[in-house]
Amino acid sequence: MNDYVLLTDSSADLTDALVKELGVEVLPLSFTMRNKTYRNWPDNREIDPKDFYRQLREGEMATTSAVNVSDFTETIEPHLKEGRDVLVVAFSSGLSATCHSAQIAAQELSEQYPERKVYVVDSLCASLGQGLLVWYAARMKNEGRGIGAVRDWLEENKLHLCHWFTVDDLHFLKRGGRISSATAVLGTMLSIKPVMHVDDEGHLTKVGTARGRNASLKALVDHMAETAIDPAGQTVFISHGDCEEDANKVAEDVKRRFGVQTVVLNNVGPVIGAHSGPGTVALFFLGRHR
């Protein structure tokens, strides 16, 4: 029996077109800006990403909220009632309480519906890194792989999902407590850009720095050169904080250097963008290790 639902949350930053193509369900996280709360739907029905980033550039702040237990319960339970199992691929537990909410809901529902399967995979991923993991899962599901086999593949391979980020405005990292005020001021004066990744615990961590924007973008691709598995045969995802031109530079570099044929771009959604800011560029691929 292959009747199951693949469910993720909006931190995966999948485009609406990809969500429909893959046949996955997406639960939106929430964010609040100017005292108004929005849900982060893949089709951007409540706020356009350009408007969101414009407000950040104007000095507005956004606060974010995880998906709560009742949201997961209300989404999953109808499927169980109708005889379908559910596989949840959740936002990294190192960055959000969303995964914990999914695990609580899954445990409670498994007790109520013991004949059904509800599995939660802590992706330890963010943005289109989570999205790329979901993409692989959906492809396997659509090829006929069962829920247990897909869950096992995700658990075995999630730490091969590499995330490399850089940001353009250090003050967003300062605001989130990831760097000091002095580091932000000095780095801005000297045009020093951090190069970061998501580690094996699912935390966003700084790995190095680059002098200037072009060098920081090149550093992302250099890291791919070090660890990527069969890069020419991969589909690569890139997300960006309203800086599509820079994201396209990275895409062209990836294609030129490695022979990659397919690159998918989308905005970094508001839930992560509130902390990384405009000008973020992130590169995602499968590698030997993170």
Automatic annotation (TrEMBL):
Gene3D superfamilies given in the database record: 3.30.1180.10, 3.40.50.10170
UniProtKB keywords: Lipid-binding
Gene Ontology MF, one: lipid binding
Signal sequence bounds: none
Pfam families listed in its UniProt record: DegV (PF02645)
PANTHER family: DEGV DOMAIN-CONTAINING PROTEIN DR_1986-RELATED, DEGV DOMAIN-CONTAINING PROTEIN YITS
Function summary: May bind long-chain fatty acids, such as palmitate, and may play a role in lipid transport or fatty acid metabolism.
Protein name: EDD domain protein, DegV family
Protein source organism: Flavonifractor plautii ATCC 29863
